[in-house]
Amino acid sequence: MTQEELFKSLVSHAKEYGFIFPSSEIYDGLSAVYDYGQLGVELKNNIKRYWWESMVRLNENIVGIDSAIFMHPRIWEASGHVGAFNDPLIDNKDSKKRYRADVLLEDYLAKLEEKIEKEVAKGRKKFGDAFDEEQFRATNPNVLRNRSKINEVHSRMVAALEANDLQALRDLILDCEIVCPISGTKNWTDVRQFNLMFSTQIGSVSDDAGIIYLRPETAQGIFVNFLNVQKTGRMKIPFGIAQIGKAFRNEIVARQFIFRMREFEQMEMQFFVRPGEEIKWYEKWKETRLKWHKAMGLGDDKYRFHDHDKLAHYANAAADIEFEFPFGFKELEGIHSRTDFDLGNHQKFSGRKIQYFDPETNESYVPYVVETSIGLDRCFLAVYSSAYCEEKLDNGEERVVLRIPPFLAPVKAAVLPLVKKDGLPEKAREIMNMLKFDFNCQYDEKDSIGKRYRRQDAIGTPYCITVDHDTLKDGCVTVRDRDTMEQERVKIDELKNLIDNKTSFRNILQKL
Ligand code: ATP
Question: Hey, CA dihedral for 39, 45, 48, 49, is it positive or negative?
Answer without folding.
Answer: negative
